[in-house]
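Whiteboard transcription, Tuesday session. T.W. wrote the structure tokens on the left side:
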């Protein structure tokens, strides 16, 4: 009658193969998790950068809008503001009887910091304001 040790020797090679396959699958699984983590980190950084640019562009438009307060009756103006969102500066210059230029600059206090510039050119005819040209840059 064969002993128990003798009958189990034939299966040790199968156990070794199963153990090697399990280790290989574990390594592949953790490598996949690392790749997913790297991709998620990159996506987060892209989202933060997009958010910073969006905040800066909005703040630059706010700066131009603040400088434009009362533009039908005034020949110029400026506005500066610094708050938790960022720093805003706007200028309004009226040249001649009817043309004007509005500029807005902003720096967002976000991660990462971003800045933007907006410039509007147009004309005022009576109480009607028309914007002819607008540029946005970051």
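and on the right, the sequence the group agreed on:
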């Amino acid at each position: 009658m064969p002993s128990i040790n003798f009958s189990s020797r034939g299966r040790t090679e199968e156990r070794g193969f199963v153990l090697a396959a399990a280790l290989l699958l574990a390594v592949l699984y953790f490598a996949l998790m690392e790749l997913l983590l790297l991709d998620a980190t990159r996506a987060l950084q892209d989202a933060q950068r997009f958010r910073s640019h969006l905040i800066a562009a909005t703040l630059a438009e706010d700066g131009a809008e603040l400088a434009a307060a009362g533009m039908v009756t005034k020949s110029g103006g400026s506005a500066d503001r610094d708050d938790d969102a960022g720093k805003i500066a706007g200028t309004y210059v009226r040249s001649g009887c009817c043309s004007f230029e509005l500029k807005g600059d902003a720096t967002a206090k976000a991660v990462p910091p971003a800045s933007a510039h907006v410039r509007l050119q147009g004309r005022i005819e009576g109480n009607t304001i028309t914007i002819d040209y607008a540029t946005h840059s970051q």
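Someone added at the bottom: The two ends are 86 Å apart (CA to CA).
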